[in-house]
Design brief:
Order of helices and strands: EHHHEEEEEEEHEHEHEHHHEHEHE
Largest sheet: 10 strands, mixed
Number of strands: 14
Bound molecules: S-adenosyl-L-homocysteine, iron/sulfur cluster
CATH class of the largest domain: Alpha Beta
CATH superfamily of the largest domain: Aldolase class I
Helix content: 25-40%
CATH architecture of the largest domain: Alpha-Beta Barrel
Radius of gyration: 21 Å
Shape: elongated
Strand content: 15-25%
Structural class: alpha/beta
Strand order of the largest sheet: 3-4-5-6-9-10-11-12-13-14
Distance between the termini: 22 Å
Number of helices: 11
Number of domains: 2
């Protein structure tokens, strides 16, 4: 029998489970508290549950299906975990600590089908969607680590690990709800961000399904020639269509949108591109995150500091906010676009 993974179960679902095991419904709340207040995954350690219930739970359910295969810590404190799934695949999760934040970079898929030419995850191809439980287990694991480290909590969650989150939309939406819930991980709605490569119909679906969370669109190219060469999805949904959709998203959700923009020497980081990007962002309810290229594809280089400074100077004339992301954990291949693992263990 496959055990049900209850980390993503709602209280009513847990109640149904305990009742089906011949136990009173109130036990569900106790199990839930153990999982989220105490971050416990071992039924045997849920000491206020009667032993027979612990044993029945052990046989029927689980709160943990992932194995940690490796942990790497960067010189800047960024930590990356490689998880192994029950079916022998690997994927990664990153904790990015700063003075006042504990951000977790969550994966939504194993590999990615989108084929962006600058991204290492693309080289894995698409393997499968992560389940709701597998998505939440990343946050659970990192929360435990943060609690042991300094008694703190995860403060921010960004779906910028492996995969295209909007192609696993329902699991990602439910995961966001539990990440946010006071009975779950208690992360504020505006500290939960989903990043998409620009899957147009899914952006509109997201605007209706989960309008309260933050959305980032990876623009990365300021015209169709450049963007199509970097991101195959642009041949399906070009920049004009994407921007119309972005506007519709802003209207439907009432949220400010983030455009992510990767800086690649000679391709996306030119004065002309800066002017195009300025035109795109102007008069839109948006901000821009600049991400200097992290190394992966040997044919692409990050720009020099001077090139970035010139690019930022042009953008600074716009009426929108611009932030530059500092690469975190590049020495352990944990920075944006650097996540990739071997495909499957040899049996
Ligand atoms: N698939 C989603 C989310 C994961 S990628 C998306 O594409 O938005 C998260 C971010 O990392 C995206 O903005 C992507 O453009 C960026 N990225 C990918 N590869 C990168 C690289 N080599 N250097 C810098 N940023 C990269
Ligand atoms: Fe997939 Fe995002 Fe990487 Fe593109 S950048 S291949 S969408 S993970």
């Amino acid at each position: 029998m496959t055990k049900s993974h209850i980390l993503g179960s709602s209280l009513p679902e847990l109640e149904t489970l305990v009742v089906s095991l011949g136990e009173p419904a109130f036990r569900a709340r106790q199990i839930h508290n153990w999982m989220f207040r105490n971050l416990e995954t071992d039924f045997a350690k849920m000491t206020n549950l009667p032993k027979p219930l612990q044993e029945k739970l052990e046989a029927a359910a689980t709160c943990s299906v992932l194995k940690v295969k490796a942990t790497q810590v960067s010189t800047d404190g960024t930590t990356k975990w490689v998880f192994e799934t029950h079916d022998g695949h690997f994927f990664e999760t990153v904790l990015i600590p700063t003075e006042d934040r504990r951000s977790i970079c969550v994966s939504s898929q194993i590999g990615c089908a989108m084929g962006c030419t600058f991204c290492r995850t693309a080289t894995m191809g698409f393997i499968r969607n992560l389940t709701l439980g597998e998505i939440l287990e990343q946050a659970h694991w990192v929360s435990r680590h943060v609690k042991e480290m300094d008694g703190g909590r995860v403060s921010n969650a960004i779906f910028m690990g492996m995969g295209e989150p909007l192609l696993n939309l329902e699991n990602v939406a439910r995961a966001c709800e539990i990440l946010n819930s006071q009975e779950g991980f208690g992360i504020a709605k505006d500290k939960i961000t989903v990043s998409t490569s620009g899957v147009v119909p899914k952006i509109l679906e997201w605007a209706v399904r989960a309008p309260d969370f933050k959305l980032a669109i990876s623009l990365n190219g300021s015209n169709d020639t450049v963007r199509s060469a970097l991101m195959p999805i642009n041949r399906r949904y070009n920049i004009e269509t994407l921007l119309e959709t972005a506007d519709e998203y802003i209207r439907l959700s009432g949220q400010k949108l983030t455009f992510e923009y990767i800086l690649i020497q000679g391709k996306t980081c030119t004065p002309e591109a800066a002017r195009e990007l300025k035109r795109i962002a102007s008069h839109r309810h948006c901000k821009i995150n600049l991400i200097p290229l992290n190394r992966g594809n040997p044919d692409m280089q990050p720009p020099s500091d001077d090139e970035i400074a010139e690019f930022e100077r042009i953008l600074a004339q716009g009426d929108f906010q611009v932030l530059r992301r500092r690469p975190r954990g590049p020495d352990i291949y944990a920075a944006c676009g650097q996540l990739a693992t071997e495909q499957k263990k040899v049996a």
